Structures are given as C-alpha cells and as structure tokens.
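Class I SAM-dependent methyltransferase
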Amino acid sequence: MYEKTFPHKRYNHTLAFLKKHIDVSEKILDLGIENPFSLIMRDEGFDVVNTNGEDLDEKYDMLQEKNYSVITAFEIFEHLLNPYTILKNIKCNKLVISVPLQLWFSPAYRSKTDMWDRHYHEFEDWQLDWLLEKTGWVIKDRQKWTNPSDKIGIRPILRMFIPRYYIIYAEKINAQD
C-alpha cells in the first residue's frame, strides 16, 4: 500500500473503501481534475475519467451523461456552494463521496493564496447524510477516520481521537433512465 503519512493514510482508507464497493470493470467519473488519487485508482485497475476543472456549481453536464456507472467525489463537496444541485443531477446509480468533517476546534480551511482552494462547507456527518437523503440517495456504507499530525499541542492531540474524514457509498433510490 501507500505510505502511512498524510495524505497517504487517507488514500489507503479511500482505496480500501472503494475496492469494497466498486468493481474495476465499472466506469467512474471522478469529480475534479486529475489528481494523485485518480492516478492511484488507475494504477489499481479502475477505469476513471476526471472532470476538466469546470466550475461544478455552474456547469454539470458531465453528470448527466449515462456512460458512467459510478461517480466519485473525494474531498470535492466542501468546495462547492451548491452540492444539492450536483447530487440531484447525477444520472448513474452509485456514488462514493468523502469529505473532511467539521472540527469544533479548527476553523474551515481557507487558502490565503488560492481563491479556489477553500472550504465553503465542512460537514458534520448528519448534514451530509441528510443532503444525500434529500437528493434521492440511500447510504449503504460509511466510515470515519482520524488524521493525526506529528505536531505538538492540544489540536494535534484532539486529531488523534476525533475523526476528520467521512466516506460514504450510496445508491440512487430511483435511478433515472
């Protein structure tokens, strides 16, 4: 597997979860531009196509194509202003999504140099569950994991025990033809 350091611990958890629910023969649309994890998925035999960097709040045509059997969204939904519209417009019937969880002791992430690298949402688990339910998805499996750091202090100690990431496998209630 991959190293146990950040972000590789997250990659290992995500890859194991993906393999548990998705067969390598299924065609995947991974929301977001090609990234280290989409390359890992390809190395592991998954058939993955990424979106092209378009603003998914404004342009979500690819979600309406029917040639994908799975949509993946790994740490993407926290950057969107309107994840409801995205989830509502997905035409395939399988979804694997992960998000960073809101931590009471740490403010939402906001890059000082990159205006796109910001978290508009950091979800509590029940919020993402409710969003999926309201948009026609049924959660079949979920996991959480921590993200400890090597730093010293109260926050790093809390990160050893409080989950930071949440991943879900869901299926569409009434997949649209």
